[in-house]
Design a protein that fits this description.
This protein is mainly beta. The protein contains two helices and 28 strands.
Length: 350
């Protein structure tokens, strides 16, 4: 009997399971390793002037390379990748976004190309970068004093004088859950790197942990360690700054007691406290490596810490007034700070 040669189509079909097995056996892609840093050798790389008033907040868009600062005069000043990479000088502000009436109080940006800003005009504006076009205007019932955006740029959290925290969908500009358990103004918000949790703090001197996107409150966290016996109780701490560790297992808290308290989120207890600032802590940021915690303060300084043992690494000085905010940028090898002295400073961490 004569055998027929199998068709090419049949051969291809028979090979599919084998090919699928090869695909399934491929190792998962590893996350890119961040460039090495040397925080002990950190130094000032550049000073950006040209702000039209004191700077209140700062953020960085990794996808566009744009650095943005919020100003008292209702403007947002931003610099492009050429400046943030140190390729060209940035003495003059190349671009300004105008949309708010009155001081811009907060900024937020994820890894995407959307910038969120809030002001005393009770509005949140969503901008498209790098064009600077306005995408959405989100009306609010009170002044917004804190913003946070998830790393994937999907959710935005806003809090302020109305005692509630509102979650927004960034893409549509539509409101989501409202978290209404605060007893006073919200001054600080932070999403965990995995986007599953939101931390809030403010004038009611408590830190709360929320589940996202459900909005369920998970725990109340004491922002200060218990007072030892036979010791006068320290004044309650107003919370100005919050930051999650890269693994989302710890939370750094900063406020008016001039210390940084590291909390274990498994039980809500303080692991250690870092003392060194001479005034309120106004900003916090973890490096993605987990080996560096950065803080800024009303004492005009920026401090670099080892979060594992709480030891100070270096103090960065140069600002002549309150440092209001910090953000990592350029693959987390540079640090940007904004101050009431009307400047933005770029610090090299390599």
């Amino acid at each position: 009997m004569r055998c027929r040669r199998p068709s090419l189509l049949l051969i291809a079909l028979l090979a599919l399971p084998f090919a699928a097995g090869l695909v399934a056996q491929q190792p998962a892609a590893k996350a890119p390793v961040p460039p090495p840093i040397a925080p002990g050798q950190a130094r000032l790389a550049q000073t950006l002037g040209g702000l039209d008033g004191p700077g209140f907040a700062i953020t960085y868009s990794a996808s566009t390379g744009i650095l943005a600062a919020a100003c008292e005069q209702g403007t947002i000043h931003y610099w492009n990748k050429g400046v943030t990479l140190g390729v060209r000088a940035g003495d003059k502000t190349p671009d300004v976004l105008v949309g708010h009436k009155g001081p811009v109080t907060a900024l937020a940006c994820g890894r995407g190309a959307v910038l969120a800003s809030a002001g005393v005009d009770q509005k949140i504006l969503l901008w498209s970068l790098p064009e600077g076009t306005l995408l959405h205007t989100l009306p609010c019932t009170a002044i917004v004093r804190a913003l946070a955006m998830t790393a994937d740029s999907k959710y935005l959290a806003a809090g302020g004088d109305d005692l509630a925290i509102q979650i927004w969908n960034v893409e549509t500009g539509k409101p989501g859950p409202q978290l209404a358990a605060n007893l006073d103004w919200t001054l600080s918000l932070a999403f965990s790197p995995d986007g599953k949790f939101l931390a809030s703090g403010g004038y009611d001197k408590a830190v709360r942990l929320w589940e996202i996107p459900s909005g369920k409150k998970l725990m109340d966290i004491a922002p200060q360690p218990p007072t030892p016996a036979n010791t006068a109780k320290a004044p309650a701490d107003t919370i100005y700054a919050l930051a999650f560790s890269p693994d989302s297992k710890q939370l750094a808290i900063g406020g008016t007691d001039a210390q940084i308290h590291l909390v274990n989120l498994a039980d809500g207890k303080i692991i250690r406290s870092l003392a060194g600032h001479g005034s309120s802590v106004t900003g916090l940021a973890f490096h993605p490596s987990g080996t560096l915690l950065i803080s800024c303060s009303k004492d005009h300084s920026i401090r670099l810490w080892n979060p594992t043992n709480g030891q100070p690494i270096k103090t960065l000085e140069g600002h002549t007034s309150w440092v209001e905010g910090i953000t990592l940028m350029v693959q987390d090898t540079r640090l940007a700070s904004v101050s009431a002295d009307e400047t933005v400073r770029l610090w090299e961490l390599r």
